[in-house]
Amino acid sequence: MTDRILFVHAGGSKTGSTALQNFFEHNFSLLESFGFAYENRLNIKSDFEVTSGNGRLLRDKLIFGDTPDNEIDRLVLTYFGRCNNAICSSEFFQLTQGLGWRKLFEASVRLGVTLKVIFYVRNIIPFFLSSYDQSIKTEGQCRLFDEWVQEVSWEHFDCLQIIADELPHSDIKLIHFDSKKTDLIRSFLDVLGIDSSFEVSQKYQKNQVNRSLNKNEREALIKVNKALGGAYSTELSELLIYANPNVQGEPILCNKTTTELLLAHYSNEVDWVNNTFFNEQAVVSVLPIELEKSLNKKSIIQPAHNSDVEKQVLNWALEKLKTIQYETEQRLLNALNDAAQNDSGKSHPDIPVDFDSLAYLLLNPDVLRAGFDPIQHFIIHGKQEGRVYKFLNRQNSI
């Protein structure tokens, strides 16, 4: 029987993993005809849907030390389907510690499967610029890049060190994303050994999945994040991106001081990657690669106008206000209804015999808006604060 090979695509982050996974999902039948299975699919509906890939299932089993070996073996085999080659892809492998990689390698030995790890590595500054946008989109980030970048790390280096400690270096295929990003899918197929007879549609070559922000979108999201925190960052960013999925991202400029700091901080890590995986050639760097192609592309894909972004944000805010208003009204009505029907707790010695729960909420709207139980609030706070707990007629109030 032909030897089986498990190709584990482990990321890294911000190197087009989602675009690759969506391609695998939509072309699994064609891949199978070439002898490569992409099983445990997520059945995505959109070319721009962001998922964790088909490998999340296996990765989650590996991170728990008490997962039985036979359960890991069984799961590994499900990725092969009817083929001798399997593709297992998830960025979450990047976060896997040494034990997880060790368990996967041991499983491959038990099963007689050759393990090949594919990892895309990205230059430092482009990686951080893209990660910064991701933090704005999903984490409510509102700080300036030069401040934010001082508190993060180059995740690619962290992951590669762990993998290199657990697997033979010959089983790790490192690809320089910055050199291959214009032909990302073909670069992956080349590693698999699939020749040019496998035709890649232009649609997949042009698709931007989980794209970076342009200047107007970034500024709008930062303003919203400053005002509202991270509560709505993902919702609003997805609205902007799905409305214009092919808009060209516009990375911010990294100033001279920050560039010098990054050069000083990460030069040793870059050297280790180049020495370990690229035969000491200066492939990966701190600085971005300037390509004339990418500059020319900007004239092809038009950025969204500022007025369009502002209009989208305004419409989103108006709709959100309607939703919040409705939800607030329902919550307040429920609180009032509960207060009108619930007399439990009135036997407490701190509750006056003429305590009116409904009146307490209406006369103390901050308690109503906060959703506090009126009786409990009066016991804990209201009595001490001298809160009014019943309606007073005009005669009594004079």
Task: Write structural notes for this entry.
The chain is of the alpha/beta class and 398 residues long. Among the domains are: 4-123 and 144-204 and 267-273, Rossmann fold, CATH 3.40.50; 342-397, no CATH class. The chain contains 20 helices and five strands. It has helices spanning 17-26, 28-33, 56-62, 69-78, 98-111, 124-139, 145-148, 155-166, 177-180, 184-192, 202-206, 215-228, 233-243, 256-277, 292-297, 306-341, 357-363, 365-370, 374-385, 394-397, and strands at 4-9, 36-37, 85-89, 113-121, 172-176. Strands 2-3-1-4-5 form a five-stranded parallel beta sheet, sandwiched between helices. α3 packs antiparallel against α4 and α4 (69-78) crosses α5. The model is unreliable at 291-304 and 394-398 (pLDDT under 50).
Quick overview:
This protein has 398 residues and is α/β, with parallel strands linked by helices. The protein contains 20 helices and five strands. The chain has helices spanning 17-26, 28-33, 56-62, 69-78, 98-111, 124-139, 145-148, 155-166, 177-180, 184-192, 202-206, 215-228, 233-243, 256-277, 292-297, 306-341, 357-363, 365-370, 374-385, 394-397; strands spanning 4-9, 36-37, 85-89, 113-121, 172-176.
